Amino acid sequence: MKHALIAQAEQVLRRNDRGTYTVPTHGLYPFQWNWDSVLSALGFAHFDEARAWTEIDTLFAHQWEDGMVPHIIFHERDEGYFPGPDVWSTGRAVPTSGITQPPVAGFAVRRMVDNAKDKDLATQRARALLPRIHAWHRWFFNSRDPEASGLVAIIHPWESGRDNSIDWDAALARVPTEGVEPFTRRDIQHANPAHRPTHAQYERYIWLVQTFRSLGWDNTKLHDASPFRVVDPGFNAILIRSCADLAELAEQLGEPEIAKQSRDFATRGIAALEKLWSDAHGQYLCLDRSTGELIDSPSIGGLLAAFAAVPTERAAAIARRIDKLGDAAKFLVPSHDPSAPEFDDLRYWRGPVWLIVNYMIADGLSTAGQHATVERIIADSLALIHESGFAEYYSPITAEPCGGAHFTWTAAMVLEFLAQPAAVA
Ligand code: GLC
After folding, report:
1. Is there a contact between 82 and 195 (Cβ–Cβ < 8 Å)?
2. How far does the centroid of ligand 1 lie from the alpha carbon of residue 281, in Å?
3. Which of 143, 261, 273, 310 is spaced 20 to 30 A from 232 at the CA atom?
4. Does some domain include residue 141?
5. What residue stretches are annotated with the Mannosylglycerate hydrolase MGH1-like glycoside hydrolase domain (predicted)?
């Protein structure tokens, strides 16, 4: 059973491999995506370590001079995706988008070094990546935390990686739509429109892109100019975890200055996260930086915070909250609380289960000693694969596969889950 599943997962990765990068899936997403690639490298590392390192190297080869690592690299022309390079117009030799995505590389690179069979290769590649990843982290704190709060804001919902989460509804409603150039969406030609964001959301996504473009993608201006500025606990937890892991790696590789700065970022971030805690919800919440208020939206962003080394009692509360969600959802972890009126079990980030988030939550809770919850998350993740294949995301109620099929990072997470002792395939 386990062998067959591993073989299938490897096949998905190979199928989406374009040589030096992978696409998330053919058709719907024909380019390289930032956090997809980094998490997918963890999958490749199980059967081809050199290929895994190449995946991350290719992404960082397109890092901007200011340190940002873009969310999409448009390696080849493909008319099947909107918004393409002409809409972004970032002026790069190989076109990229102009926003970023969750910075999971610090975590992934440390894990790949720890698990490497070829230690020389791992040390050599990690050493080359170290200053680049650090530059990305510094970019975050410079450009997205101008008041030095310890936490960074996203300025576009797509940066969160949870594109149409209910978390963004109120802040996105304040984004205007005047002047949005007419467009044709491609995503709904590849996937069921009922599983995707709405047209009203897309208009605002594009308004933000046009506005940033009109500012020449100058990151010294974009944060303050954006009407959408949200501090997402999940996103910040990924950044904090990556800083902490990079600190360890820098220590091992004899880079004390990077180690010190990275540790400082992580320590300040963990302390600042406390402001996002909600006793009423038993989880962290997003903060709207434009209004200064917490966003009353019980999403998976506040549970993903467990990926960072949050205080033990916070991790325990998150585990209890996830156990409770498990009463309403057959498959953990729904991306939104099923009892909330806006919950939609099929629509992208408004309810469905995503294996990558399950993986990161399980990893954090495992370190925090919450083993029963971790076992259920892993068992549910593998049950979804057995019932519905390697989909992009799944209904937490019925296991219906949604979005794209043969999905790269879903397959990569299966390889990671199956390598863990708690996994029963
Ligand atoms: C969607 C997801 C995002 C992912 C991308 C490619 O935009 O919301 O997290 O990176 O697809 O898979």
Report:
1. no
2. 27
3. 261
4. yes
5. 29-410
